[in-house]
Structure formats: structure tokens, C-alpha cells
Specification:
The chain is of the alpha+beta class. It folds into two domains: about 60 residues; about 120 residues, Distorted Sandwich (Glucose Permease (Domain IIA)), CATH 2.70.70.10. The strands form three sheets. Strands 1, 4, 6, 7, 8, 9, 11 and 12 form an eight-stranded antiparallel β-sheet that branches. The longest helix has about 45 residues. The relative contact order is 0.10.
């Protein structure tokens, strides 16, 4: 037995010292590699499992937050709608808005009506009267030259001469404002009145003392002065009032402006 054991040990020693050493080394390397692969595979599996678990948890949390959409069934919606109270504020606001709109419309109509009335009043014609009652013996020449007997020359007659006695009252021909009271070297004491529609009326040859002053408001038929003898340009004619009118800055026929042409 001892001899057999010695033979086996010597045989094994020779094997190790030969190719057997490299075979044993290869076996050991394969075993170590297999063990290492098993360890790495387990580690990677644990890592993947942890990541998947984290992702799943994150997705669940996000769905549970703002990104989660819940769709109630139709019965729930109907029940909720029937239980929602109606806001009295909305009804009041709607009613108030309607009332306000109606008031504004009525106000607009009132304003429009007032404006129309004012416009209609503004377009009303002035009521004119002749400043004195008497014969018109010298007419408006409408730009044509006529002989002035006092001055002995041909010139336009830009007004009308109305026969009257010295001292007769002279009336404003219509409502207006006294624009000027002045002395003219040829036409004597004069009064000018401003009327609506850019109309001016002139009363010439009055007595020096008049009844109005600049800025006074007068009405038609108000006495503004008296017929005098201050009109030197027509002194040779019988006593009268020289009456003239301007419209838009130009002399016009007084009878036409006052709508008293026959």
C-alpha cells in the first residue's frame, strides 16, 4: 500500500509539473469567471429592479397630482348640477345691467330730443318789424348808382328811407344785442344791433340821446331812440329814418331780409 501511494504521488507530481498544471489553472480561471459573472448579474438585476420601482413610484405620484384627470360619470354630474345654488349676484348684475342699458337708451333719446328741439329753435326765423311806421320813399338800390340830391352825386343807396316825424320813436327790428352806438360825420347818430344768422341792423340819423348802450339786449319793438335831424348826407330830404341791414358782412335789402317784400 505504501508503495502504491508513493507511486501515485510521484505520478501526480509529474502531472502537475507537466501539462496538468496549465489545465488546473484554466479550470480555476473558468470557475472564478463564472462566479464573477453570477455576482455581476445579480447586482445589475438589483439595480434594474430599483430603477423600475423608482420610475413606477414617480409616475404614480405625478398622476396623483396636477396631471391626474378624473372623469365623473353622468349621474354624478347631473346630481352636482342640481345641487349647485344659483348666484343671486349674477341675476342682480344682469338685471342692473339691463336697467342701466335701458336708462342709457332713454337718456340718449332725451338728449337727442333736446338737441333736436334746440336745433329747431335755432333754425326759427326771427320776427321782424319795421323800425318806424311810414312810407318808404327811397328804396334800396342793390348796388346801382342813384342821384343823391343833398350831396349832388351818384352813389349807391344801401338802405331804405322811411318817412317819419322828428321825435318819433325808433324800434329795434328784431331781438338782438346792441353792438355799437356811434356818431358818423355824414349819417349822424347811429345804433347797430347784432341779430341771429349773422345779421346786423343800422338805424341812422337819430337824435343824439338814445335809449340803449353797447352790450344791451333788446327785443323786437323795443324803442332804442328817436328820429332826429343828424343825417347830413340826406338833409335835403323830408324827415325820415335811414335804415340799413347787413347779412354775412354785406349790405342787403332790408325788406328782403325781413321777408316784407310785396
Amino acid at each position: 500500500m505504501k508503495n502504491d501511494l508513493k507511486f501515485s504521488q510521484s505520478k501526480f507530481s509529474r502531472f502537475l509539473s507537466g501539462k496538468g498544471f496549465y489545465i488546473a489553472l484554466a479550470v480555476c480561471l473558468v470557475g472564478a469567471g463564472s462566479a464573477a459573472w453570477v455576482a455581476v448579474d445579480k447586482t445589475m438585476g438589483a439595480v434594474d429592479l430599483g430603477q423600475n420601482s423608482s420610475i413606477s413610484s414617480s409616475s404614480t405620484t405625478q398622476q396623483g397630482g396636477d396631471m391626474q384627470w378624473n372623469y365623473p360619470d353622468s349621474d354624478s354630474v347631473v346630481n352636482n348640477e342640481s345641487q349647485v345654488p344659483i348666484s343671486s349676484g349674477s341675476s342682480t348684475h344682469s338685471s342692473s345691467s339691463s336697467t342701466s342699458s335701458s336708462s342709457q337708451q332713454q337718456s340718449g333719446k332725451s338728449v337727442g330730443a333736446s338737441a333736436g328741439q334746440v336745433q329747431q329753435q335755432g333754425e326759427q326765423k326771427l320776427l321782424y318789424v319795421l323800425p318806424v311806421q311810414g312810407e318808404i320813399f327811397n328804396k334800396y338800390s342793390d348796388g346801382e348808382l342813384v342821384k343823391n340830391e343833398t350831396l349832388g352825386e351818384w352813389r349807391t343807396h344801401d338802405g331804405i328811407d322811411i318817412k317819419a316825424a322828428v321825435g318819433d320813436g325808433v324800434m329795434a327790428c328784431a331781438n338782438g344785442t346792441v353792438k355799437e352806438v356811434y356818431e358818423d360825420p355824414m349819417w349822424g347818430t347811429c345804433v347797430c344791433i347784432q341779430h341771429e344768422g349773422d345779421v346786423l341792423s343800422y338805424y341812422m340819423g337819430l337824435e343824439k340821446e338814445v335809449s340803449v348802450k353797447e352790450g344791451d339786449t333788446v327785443k323786437g319793438s323795443d324803442v332804442i331812440g328817436k328820429v332826429g335831424q343828424t343825417n347830413l348826407a340826406e338833409q335835403s330830404s323830408e324827415p325820415h329814418l335811414h335804415f340799413a341791414m347787413k347779412q354775412a358782412g354785406e349790405y342787403a335789402n332790408p325788406l328782403e331780409v325781413m321777408d316784407k317784400l310785396k
